[in-house]
Design brief:
Layout (H helix, E strand, L loop, with lengths): L22 H14 L8 E2 L2 H8 L3 H13 L3 E3 L5 E3 L24 H5 L3 H12 L19 H14 L2 H5 L8 H14 L10 E4 L2 H12 L5 E6 L3 H9 L3 E8 L2 E2 L12 E4 L13 H13 L3 E5 L15 H4 L5 E6 L11 E4 L5 H11 L5 H12 L2 H24 L17 E6 L5 H10 L5 E2 L13 E6 L8 H14 L11
Parallel strand pairs: 5-6, 5-8, 8-9, 9-10
Antiparallel strand pairs: 1-3, 2-3, 4-11, 6-7, 10-11, 12-14, 13-14
Length: 509
């Protein structure tokens, strides 16, 4: 409880300047709450308007409005040439003290943490929580795990426990990652992805894309440094950069990928984050000329490229394009891939391929930021890859996903209308259904969610939403079983009809 004298009195509440609530009303609400809860008891003296304004760093007129309201309602008296004194009004009010979690608390978040709590972040976070235990029909980033060979995985883990020393299984791993796993990844990259120039010493094991971004920022980006990102782009990558204090430079994406010419002025940028093989969410593949432009830009300005290959294991081999890392002759590219979308999201394993000169710095960042990743899953994944089960599984899933895409192509034609643009090619994990300018795609996404479809609004992936921001729906092509696709597309069609985007049969067009 604060002292009953205002000498050296420090207000024990704060105000939130980022809130939409008026500052004067925040001051009023905090003081009123303290009086009602008897934290400021009858007879307690508050400092004058000037002192309160100085402590809260607001204008005297703001404090004056709050105090005036408290006096008018009978909570305070005095104040013109003497202290403000709490009245006995609290004794006349019967109130149960709320539990601690309901009492307003100071916001402990740092400025950079607050900067990432955008409406878009909250939108996707809520969407992720809603779909955490749901089938995630048409989710753009949620492959089907129902065919995962869990018996093989469990047997490999059981065999590991039965044949190896328990300390080697449950102990600490190499901060860079389990060496046999790094060796298995190199073998996979060389044999299956045609990745020629890669060594096990360049592999850094991470928990996923966001940790890879965090590590890259720790090593290469100082708070306030500029980072170029695709616009529209992957929202969680954007927020990972913001959480590390980066200054984001949104760069438009066209039919050939990120527009390098518009980046030419960003000569101070420390990094560019791109998804060249299948841009997320627009789905374009970066052209050969654009890749050359990007690598030239990075070399000219002594900057780095973070290449996220997020869905290459979900498509047939002949659709995989050569990565930026493979054609990078100046060691400017850091390559990121994840097993979480390929195998199962709870695995929490991925990897980075970094230039030789940066390996020690990245390992140092691993030690500082998280020290070790759990060893058990790394060991089982190693065996899963070395026994050929990984390649066998992804080849099986590519066939299943191709069958689903074929069915999806057929059913999605039901949505064809003058107001909806369906892409000509559907050969990756998701598509964008383009809607007319001004369409409330966020509302449509919400209506679809209520019907069990996890389809995100395209406009939410843009850095700044204006009237000219493209509208559409980001639809996953592989997350729905073949026998369920027709039913789910019909639900989508019904919602679009309800919003006037598809004519109802029999109506005049």
């Amino acid at each position: 409880m604060p002292r009953k004298s205002h000498d050296s009195f420090i207000l024990d509440f704060t105000i939130d300047r980022g809130s939409e609530e008026d500052l004067a009303n925040q001051i009023y609400s905090n003081i009123r709450s303290k009086i009602i809860l008897r934290d400021y008891p009858c007879g307690f003296k508050l400092p004058g308007i000037r002192a309160i304004a100085a402590q809260l760093k607001v204008s005297k007129s703001t404090v004056s409005r709050a105090i005036k309201k408290l006096k008018n309602e009978g909570y305070l008296e005095g104040g013109e040439r003497c202290d403000f004194v709490v009245t006995d009004i609290a004794n006349k009010i019967t109130v149960e003290k709320p539990p601690p979690e309901q009492i307003p608390q100071p916001n402990p978040a740092s400025r950079r943490q607050k900067s990432m709590m955008s409406k878009e972040f909250v939108y996707f976070r809520n969407s992720r929580l809603q779909n955490q235990n749901s089938p995630g029909y048409f989710h753009s980033c949620k492959p089907d795990f129902s065919n995962f060979p869990k018996d093989i995985w469990c047997n490999l883990q059981k065999e590991d426990f039965n044949t190896n020393n328990i300390n080697s299984i449950l102990g600490e791993s190499d901060p860079q990652g389990h060496l046999p796993l790094r060796q298995a990844i190199v073998k996979y990259l060389k044999n299956e992805v045609c990745f020629e120039n890669v060594e096990e010493s360049q592999i850094i094991i991470v928990s996923g894309t966001q940790e890879a971004i965090n590590l890259a920022c720790r090593v290469l980006v100082d708070p306030g440094d500029a980072v170029c990102i695709e616009d529209p782009g992957y929202i969680y990558a954007r927020d990972a950069f913001l959480s590390m204090g980066a200054n984001l430079i949104p760069v438009p994406v066209d039919d050939e990928g990120i527009n390098v010419k518009s980046m030419s002025q960003e000569i101070t940028a420390r990094m560019a984050y791109v998804t060249p093989s299948h841009q997320f969410p627009l789905g374009v593949t970066m052209s050969k000329d654009r890749r050359t432009e990007l690598l030239t830009w990075a070399e000219k300005h002594d900057t780095w490229i973070l290449e996220d290959i997020y869905d290459h294991t979900l498509v047939t081999t002949n659709e995989i394009k050569q990565s930026l890392k493979e054609i990078d002759t100046n060691n400017r590219v850091i390559y990121i891939d994840s097993f979480n979308k390929t195998l199962f999201s709870g695995l929490r394993l991925g990897y980075m391929v970094v230039p030789h000169d940066l390996v020690d710095s990245f390992v140092g960042a691993c030690i500082v930021s998280r020290l070790y990743l759990p060893l058990i899953n790394q060991r089982v994944l190693t065996e899963f890859m070395e026994t050929g089960n990984f390649v066998k599984y992804i080849n099986k899933m590519r066939e299943i996903y191709e069958q689903r895409r074929t069915m999806f192509k057929k059913e999605i034609q039901k949505l064809k209308s003058e107001l909806i643009e369906i892409p000509d090619e559907i050969n990756r994990a998701h598509i964008v259904l383009k809607l007319p300018d001004g369409t409330d795609d966020v509302l449509i996404s919400k209506e679809l969610s209520e019907k069990g479809l996890s389809i995100a609004a395209l406009s939410k992936y843009y850095d700044k939403k204006t009237e000219k921001t493209p509208r559409g729906l980001v639809i996953g092509c592989i997350s729905v079983k073949k026998e369920e696709i027709e039913e789910k597309v019909n639900i989508l069609k019904q919602i679009l009809q309800n919003n006037g985007l598809i004519p109802i049969l029999g109506e005049a067009t």
